[in-house]
Amino acid sequence: MSTAEEIVDIRVRVRGLVREAEGVLSVDLEPLSGALPAWEPGAHVDLVVAGAPVRQYSLCGDPAASRYRIAVLREPDSRGGSRAVHERLRPGDELVLREPRNHFSLEPSPEYLFIAGGIGITPILPMARAAARSGAAFRLLYLGASRTRMPFLDELAPLGDAVTVIARDEGTRADLVAEVAASPGALVYACGPERMLTALAEAVPDAETRLRVEYFSAPEIEYEPGGPFRIRLDRSGLELEVQPEESILEVMRGAGVDVLSDCESGICGSCETRIVDGEAEHRDFVLTAQEKAHGDCMMVCVSRAACPLLVLDA
Ligand code: FES
User: Which overall architecture, per CATH, does domain 111-215 show?
Assistant: First the structure.
C-alpha cells in the first residue's frame, strides 16, 4: 500500500486536564521523548484516542511552549471523539498525535479583525496574541451563547479593549456588517458555526481576498452532477476512472492507495494531495481563492477534475 502523504505520528502524555468553560475541557500534552514539532497560530493536530474516531483540534496554547494545548467541546451528536476525551482521558494517559498542519495560517498584515464563535476561539486565541506581539492593530469579537460556555475569557483579558465579548444571554448581538465596515483595511480571520461564517462571507465585500475562515462543518452546496473523469497516480503508476457518484478519495482507497482523511467533507485539509498535471474543480472550504487559482493541490474528498485526466502525486 502506498500513501498520498507521509504521516508523522508523535507520542504524547496527558499532563493535565482543565475545565475551561461549561462543556469545554483543555488538554495539556507533553512529549514522551524529545521536543514537539514547532507550530504557528492556526495549526491543528489529529488526536488519536483508542476506540474513538480520529479528530482534529486547533492548538490553542503558546507556540513558544514545550507542550501542546488543545480544547475540546463536548458534542453530544459527535462521532464519539469529544465524548472519549471528556469521559475517558486522564492525566498520565499516553496518546498519539499527528504532527501539526496549518491550513489557516496568519498572514502578515498591519491590521486584523478576528471573529470567533464559541469553541472557534481555539485557533483565534494564539492568532490574537501573535498580532498583539507583532504590534499589528487588531480587534477580536468573541461570540457565544453565554459567558459560562465561552472558554479562555480570562486569558483574553490582558488583550484589553481589543476584545469584545458578545454573549447572547446578555441580550447583545453582533452586527457583522457594521463590524467589518468599521475595519475596512483589516484581514478578517473567523472560526465558528456555519451560520456565522456564511453571514460573514456576505458581510465582507471583498471576501475572496480579505476573509480567511475555518469551518466546523461543511456548508451544504448543491453541485450539478458532472461526468466521469480519469486520474493518474504518479507514484503508484495507476490510472483510474472516477464515476460521477464517487469521490477521488474513494477511488484511490479502492485501488489500495492510503490517503489520510478526517472530515471527508472538504473542511479539514487532511486529504490534501498535490496536483502534478491537469486542473481541479475545487469544492473544498480549506484553500483560499488564491490557492485554488494557483492549482497545485486539491482536497480529494470533495474536489473533482475540470479536465479529462488529472495527474496526482500519490
Ligand atoms: S478529508 Fe477533510 S478536507 Fe478532505
Answer: 3-Layer(aba) Sandwich (3.40)
Atom of ligand 1 nearest to the CA of 301: 4
Q: How far, in Å, is the centroid of ligand 1 from the Cα of 264?
A: 4
Query: Which triple of cell numbers denotes residue 186?
Result: 483589516
Instruction: Confirm or reject: Cβ of 156 under 6 Å from ligand 1.
Output: no
Third-level CATH fold of 9-101: Elongation Factor Tu (Ef-tu); domain 3 (2.40.30)
Could you tell me the three cell numbers for 307? 479536465
Please state the atom number of ligand 1 nearest to the C-alpha of residue 263.
2
Q: Is 284 in the pocket of ligand 1 (CB under 6 A)?
A: yes
Ligand 1 pocket, residue 297 CB under 6 Å: no
Domain ranges within the chain, ordered by starting residue: 9-101, 111-215, 229-312
pLDDT one digit per residue (tens) for the chain, 314 residues = 444 455 688 999 999 999 999 999 999 999 999 999 999 999 999 898 877 788 889 999 999 999 999 999 998 776 678 988 999 999 999 999 988 999 999 999 999 999 999 999 999 999 999 999 999 999 999 999 999 999 999 999 999 999 999 999 999 889 999 999 999 999 999 999 988 998 999 999 888 889 999 998 788 888 887 899 999 999 999 999 999 999 999 999 999 998 988 889 999 888 999 999 999 999 999 998 889 999 999 999 999 999 999 999 99
CB of 264 within 6 A of ligand 1: the answer is yes
In CATH, the architecture of 229-312 is Roll (3.10)
Distance between CA 167 and CA 175 in Å, rounded?
Answer: 13
* pTM of the shown model: 0.87
What order do you get walking across the sheet with 44-48 strand by strand? 55-58, 44-48, 94-101, 9-21, 24-31, 68-73
Q: Is 301 in the pocket of ligand 1 (CB under 6 A)?
A: yes
The cell numbers describing 226, all together, are 458532472
Q: Which amino acid is at 62?
A: D
